[in-house]
Amino acid sequence: MSTHASHPQRDESAPRSLVFLIEDDPAVTKLVLNALAEFGFNAEGFNTGAAMLRRMQTEKPDLCIVDLGLPDMDGIDLVRRITAQTSAGVLILTGRGHTADRVMGLELGGDDYMTKPFESRELVARVRSILRRRMAANGAAGAQQRRYASFLGWRIDCAANILRAPDGTEHLLGTAETQVLRCFVERPHQILTREQLMGARDLLPTDRSIDVRISRLRRKIEVDPHDPVIIKTVYGAGYMFAAAVTWG
């Protein structure tokens, strides 16, 4: 079962953006779809993960809003399938208060999360922010189809999202991880704020998604992720990539 919402004028910050909402609570579905329509998004609602996956076979969304408490499957598994099958952004919407659920969702490729209850305008702001970041990342990738950066024996293909270790092992990075790592290698030995790394000016102080992405990158490239020497924390300021980088 699916529901649809449309609006005659789209918001200019997110042209032609299609959002899928996977939520089994009719009241929440109505609230979110109405808010998205009011701000110019095309949106479709689904009350099960299976219904959304069937729809995704014929229409690829720009972003998915996923409730973790679905009746037919675990929302974490749905996030995994969305990120594996599409390049869509993912906003996790959950009534669960467990930090582990949020961290797991972000590690599987989610871009952001919100807990219920929530303000509809804040949800729209986060949707806009995710889409802007992804548009910026896609634009940078499109400007140069194949670009390689090397540091300390590591090599990243920014177009294919592949990170190759000094021993030749390849890691397929998520879009969000690639965006952060690319930001680092383009500005080595510079202090970068959380907002710069996320590509967002409206980042909330409570938003910890960048910290999750930094943690994932450290686990891949640091000898000791708990005592990092490549991606350093500059307390009160942000992060710094402390390695020489060559391009080509």
UniProtKB/TrEMBL annotation:
Entries under PROSITE patterns matching the protein: OMPR_PHOB (PS51755), RESPONSE_REGULATORY (PS50110)
SUPFAM superfamilies: C-terminal effector domain of the bipartite response regulators, CheY-like
Source domain of life: Bacteria
DNA-binding region: 143-243
Keywords, sorted A to Z: DNA-binding, Phosphoprotein, Transcription, Transcription regulation, Two-component regulatory system
Domain Response regulatory: 18-131
Residue stretches making up the OmpR/PhoB-type domain: 143-243
Protein name per UniProt: Response regulator transcription factor
Annotated source species: Variovorax humicola
This protein's record includes keyword Phosphoprotein: yes
Gene3D superfamilies the record matches: 3.40.50.2300, 6.10.250.690, Winged helix-like DNA-binding domain superfamily/Winged helix DNA-binding domain
One Pfam family named in its UniProt record: Trans_reg_C
Location of 4-aspartylphosphate modifications: D67
